[in-house]
Amino acid sequence: QQPVQSPQAVILREGEDAVINCSSSKALYSVHWYRQKHGEAPVFLMILLKGGEQKGHDKISASFNEKKQQSSLYLTASQLSYSGTYFCGTVSGELDDYKLSFGAGTTVTVRA
Amino acid sequence: NAGVMQNPRHLVRRRGQEARLRCSPMKGHSHVYWYRQLPEEGLKFMVYLQKENIIDESGMPKERFSAEFPKEGPSILRIQQVVRGDSAAYFCASSPGRETVEAFFGQGTRLTVV
């Protein structure tokens, strides 16, 4: 079961903030965030394990609400380099389900 | 991540031919995922393997597609009798183990079926 991401796309000006949400119908063991630029491979940003932790990577941070089966990615004071498609990947906490499944992605465009 | 090597980067096949895509995981990684990505779309899970074992192949079409990860050598995704609809980018990602930690992607193989 793929996670659901929202919004599908967002356009920002440099310096603005954005939030990308990822939700699952299943209990989650972990949430993974990646960014992919056009024609390139997805690049790992961060992983969050169940326990409700929050992580940061430069001005990009994420939270994981295990009870709500949701994660959010926060882009703070966005830079042009933040443009790309962001994917959340999830691993469920269900028995024998170890696959990493991805949402449809959120396209972020940061303009000067 | 430069550590995961996929080859070839681009592959052109005529309809009916076979396509073999290779993925060498990062050093120390024993688990490999394969994904298919159509233009402007997401990463569709195909198969999850560890050395000499298929863990989950629920995303793999039942016919024409197969995957392996032998004890020695790269993981291979094999597509027999390719059709135009198989044209896509195929990415592999590797991780150290089943208890999920970071998975890193290779640069992908762009398959074009003519």
Biggest chain contact: A-B, 23 and 25 residues
Q: Calculate Rg of chain B over CA atoms.
A: 13 Å
Radius of gyration from the alpha-carbon trace of chain A, in angstroms: 13 Å
Largest sheet of chain A: 6 strands, mixed
How many DSSP helices of chain A?
0
Q: How confident overall, as mean pLDDT of chain A?
A: 90
What is the helix content of chain A? Answer: under 10%
Structural class of chain B: mainly beta
The rounded distance between the terminal residues' Cα atoms of chain A is: 37 Å
Query: What is the string of helix and strand elements of chain B?
Result: EEEEEEEEEEE
Specify the overall morphology of chain A. Answer: globular
| Main structural class of chain A | mainly beta
Tell the overall outline of chain B: globular
Quaternary state, please? heterodimer
Q: Please report the number of helical segments of chain B.
A: 0
How many beta-strand elements of chain B? 11
Explained architecture:
The complex is a heterodimer of chains A (112) and B (114). In chain A, 0% of the residues lie in helices and 56% in strands. With 112 residues, chain A is mainly β. In chain A, the strands form 2 sheets. In chain A, strands 2, 4, 5, 9, 10 and 11 form a 6-stranded mixed sheet that branches. In chain A, strands 1-3-8-7-6 form a 5-stranded antiparallel sheet, with no helix packed on it. Chain B has 114 residues and is an all-beta fold. Chain B contains no helices and 11 strands. Chain B has strands at residues 5-7, 10-13, 19-24, 31-37, 44-50, 53-56, 65-68, 75-79, 88-95, 104-105, 109-113. In chain B, strand 4 and strand 5 form a beta hairpin. Chain B is globular. The model of chain B has no long low-confidence stretch (mean pLDDT 93). The chains are: A mainly beta (112), B mainly beta (114). Chains A and B meet through strand 4, strand 5, strand 9 and strand 10 of A and strand 5 and strand 10 of B.
